[in-house]
Amino acid sequence: MSIMITAKDNEKIKYTKSLLKTKNRNKECKFIIEGYRILTLAIECSADLEYVFINEDFENKEEHIEFLNTLKEKNIKTYKTTNKIFNDLVDTESTQGILGVVKFTQKNIEENLSDKNRFVLILDRIQDPGNMGTIIRTADAAGIDAIIALKGCVDIYNPKVIRSTMGSIFDMKVIHTTQEEALRILKLKNFEIVSSYLDTNNFYNDVEYNYKTALVIGNEANGINDELVLQSDVLVKIPIYGKAESLNAAISSAILMYEIKKYQA
Fold it and tell me: What is the DSSP-derived secondary structure letter of residue 107?
């Protein structure tokens, strides 16, 4: 049974709304997921779902009864509020009337990158939420072992990123660390550093990739930073046959991930 909250200055309301800001998400190690489908995926993936908010309309729909019963069976607290207050808790104009608050843990690279891992993705200052979410989703589909998000990347728990992952945020291991530490650990574990870079003669499909590869994808406008270029073992590019200067970061990463994956079959 849901607990009704009608006051906009209620502490639970204010706390949930605070999680729309990156600094509060990082401080509390919690983020918001919105929508019936992603809430369903969160439960299927055994995400650490702390509580749920629904609006006045949600529980009145027959197709939601089974889902609400599941929340009750799993002892997940459910709060109900007015449509107006609920709309202040989300960053979308058209809402499905349900959101959840999920706990996360900050991942240390040494503890979360095992000797069995063979393929990791390094993201250098990826700033567009849509690109980040799509990259996470594609990495999940391609069987990437881990994503290393370097300083300057968009917050992976940004609501727009979460929506773009289509649930892969619950499956994909994302590690935040410094560039120096990432390169130190990866080289120690015998990873070959392969970077997507326009100023090279190596086309991606003419290269034979190592059994253990760390693929670097750079910033949408500026590519990878100079230090990463110097530290790379191989620089590769995707041919451009038309007039476009380059490919979208998410598209480039997908092409390269699936090409490299062939060498690990």
Answer: P
